[in-house]
Amino acid sequence: MPSAKNRKESNISFRISKNDKELIRRASEMTHTNMTEFIVSKSRDAAIEVLGQQTAIKLSKPDWERFCAALDNPPKTNPALRKLLKTPGVFNE
């Protein structure tokens, strides 16, 4: 019986060509998994990769050094900005 953590509660249905199905079947056999496990695993890996590319920032060494310097030396207090941030916004009324 699947644990509550691993219970499969969602379903995806899609159509693929016979050639793609055969390719996936063969690959799943070679990895000792069934087709569902193979598709879910590879799809999850691809999703993690895509999301990682969208959320990771890559900087060159000079850019990284400028970034760290900016963090180490925050800007001076700006009274006008401080006042603006304390003022209720139009959506707060």
What can be said about this structure in brief?
The chain is built from 4 helices and no strands. It is mainly α and 93 residues long.
Description of the structure:
This protein has 93 residues and is mainly alpha-helical. It has one domain. Helix content is 58%, strand content 0%. It is built from four helices and no strands. The chain has helices at residues 18-30, 35-55, 61-72, 79-86. α1 crosses α2 (35-55). The protein is elongated, with a radius of gyration of 25 Å. The N and C termini lie far apart (53 Å). The mean pLDDT is 91.
Please describe the structure with a list of short key phrases separated by commas or semicolons.
93 residues, mainly alpha, 4 helices
Strands, helices and their partners?
Blueprint (H helix, E strand, L loop, with lengths): L17 H13 L4 H21 L5 H12 L6 H8 L7
Helix pairs in contact: 1-2
